[in-house]
Amino acid sequence: MIGQGVYFLHAHRFARDDLSHAFRLFRWAELDPGMKVLDVGSGIGSTAAAWKQFMPSLHFSCLNINKYQLDMTPEWCERILGDMQDMPIKDDSFDMAICFFSMGHADRGAQTVIGEMARVVKPGGIVFIYDMTPDDDNFSKLHDMSYMLYPRKFVESCAKSFGLELDVYIEPIDRGTIAEKVPAVTEVFAGLRPAVWRFVRSMSS
């Protein structure tokens, strides 16, 4: 998709261009200046690069199991080579952990990723997830691509079990601009809704 000029490998677009799309997510995440942010399954670091433009005081760490992608992240990011299901990170290390279109790759289930994000953020810290949720059980195309999808209730139940309290859930309007560059996504992602969760780790967990 990068060859078609798409740098955010997300199924939906909430604005007409990549940077504006990233700004919508940035706004919904509600960051504070100086936050330490962990990008889980960070790809080539596009989110870190965009959000750093919006708030230069942010400190980013990018976690990826793919060294080739990790080597492409911005040089000012801390690069962490590792599995999002077993992060080589100490407890209570970050103010926010974000996970965009990555937890479906977890072979032990999204609950392992959510649990690890809850562990590495500080009490009162934020877990911010952007993924998809299905209209029904007919989403075999993505399963054939080894990407698992989870109903909203499942994600929220897992989060609660790890001491994460739901702050915001939205299903933003998809502007459809990704399909203009990569028409094949229309069929692959048919019947799927964009889903954005913002959780806060309980102070007592």
Could you please describe the fold and organization of this structure?
Helices cover 29% and strands 26% of the residues. With 205 residues, it is α/β, with parallel strands linked by helices. The chain has a 7-stranded mixed sheet, sandwiched between helices. Helix 4 (110-120) links the parallel strand 4 (94-100) and strand 5. Helix 1 packs across helix 2 and helix 4 (110-120) packs across helix 6 (152-161). The longest helix is centred in the N-terminal third of the chain and has 12 residues, at 18-29. Residues 1-6 have low confidence and may be disordered.
Keywords:
single chain, 205 residues, alpha/beta, 7-stranded mixed beta sheet, 29% helix
Coarse structural class: alpha/beta
Q: What is the radius of gyration computed over CA atoms, rounded to a whole number of angstroms?
A: 16 Å
Helix content: 25-40%
Number of helices: 8
Q: What is the mean pLDDT?
A: 86
The secondary-structure element order is HEHEHEEHEHHEHHE
Strand content: 25-35%
Shape: globular
Main pleated-sheet profile: 7 strands, mixed
Spatial gap, N to C terminus: 40 Å
Strands, total number: 7
Strand order of the largest sheet: 3-2-1-4-5-7-6
Q: Work out the oligomeric state of the chains in this entry.
A: single chain
Question: Could you name the ranges where pLDDT drops below 50 across 5 or more consecutive residues?
Answer: 1-6
